[in-house]
């Protein structure tokens, strides 16, 4: 019963926070406040995802740390060189930076990889390459939705003022590698709020693409 209560409350929190965020980002005079709480929103979603994780084994923590460091590391190289995603720079919305990259960007990678990974875990059970390829496609689609919103609200900006094709190709490759590692590490990948969080994020960015961009 306690488990069901925690899961149910977690799903309600996820939906409500995304709805409130959507309203806030859709109303111009509320932009500054809602932009200021973006880092706290990301941390809250990561905490809710973590609270509902069913496996806290050594392998789980290894996977989480690897995804965080790899996701953050590739962004550091990307910003410094422009050779991975194209030429871009992070704004102030995502908070504290190290090497010109917000520390929270690794958290964002963790949320995306663990959500998509948990949702797809029961499909193509013994075909990890196919599962990782599909997951990478989903992640590229999510990035496609995020880009216009991120540019408008100073998450990051592109030097040439448009998103290069290189970004989506690199996103697919990086996402595939991270998903492949995720599925290779042996831990229980079930998470009862992963689907709710993933759908809420997708609908949030679709809505903002329609109303605020």
TrEMBL record:
Keyword Secreted in record: no
InterPro entries: CruF-like
Transmembrane segments: 12-27, 33-51, 63-86, 98-120, 132-153, 165-183, 195-212
UniProt entry keywords in alphabetical sequence: Membrane, Transmembrane, Transmembrane helix
One Pfam family cited in the UniProt record for this chain: Caroten_synth
PANTHER family per the UniProt record, alphabetical: SLL0814 PROTEIN (PTHR39419:SF1)
Protein name: Carotene biosynthesis protein
Organism: Pelobium manganitolerans
Lineage: Bacteria, Pseudomonadati, Bacteroidota, Sphingobacteriia, Sphingobacteriales
């Amino acid at each position: 019963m306690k488990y069901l209560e925690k899961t149910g409350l977690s799903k309600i929190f996820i939906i409500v926070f995304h709805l409130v965020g959507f309203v806030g980002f859709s109303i111009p005079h509320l932009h500054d406040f809602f932009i200021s709480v973006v880092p706290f929103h990301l941390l809250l979603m990561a905490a809710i995802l973590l609270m509902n994780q069913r496996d806290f084994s050594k392998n789980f923590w290894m996977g989480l740390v690897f995804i965080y460091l790899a996701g953050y590391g590739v962004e550091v190289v990307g910003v410094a060189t422009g050779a991975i995603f194209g030429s871009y720079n992070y704004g102030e919305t995502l908070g504290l930076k190290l090497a010109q990259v917000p520390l929270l960007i690794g958290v964002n990678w963790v949320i995306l990889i663990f959500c998509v990974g948990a949702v797809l875990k029961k499909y193509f059970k013994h075909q990890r390459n196919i599962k990782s390829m599909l997951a990478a496609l989903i992640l590229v689609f999510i990035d496609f939705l995020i880009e216009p919103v991120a540019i408008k609200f100073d998450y990051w900006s592109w030097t040439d003022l448009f998103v290069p094709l290189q970004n989506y190709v690199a996103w697919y490759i990086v996402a595939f590698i991270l998903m492949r590692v995720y599925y290779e590490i042996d831990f229980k990948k079930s998470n009862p709020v992963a689907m709710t969080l993933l759908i809420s994020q997708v609908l949030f960015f679709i809505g903002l693409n329609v109303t605020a961009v």
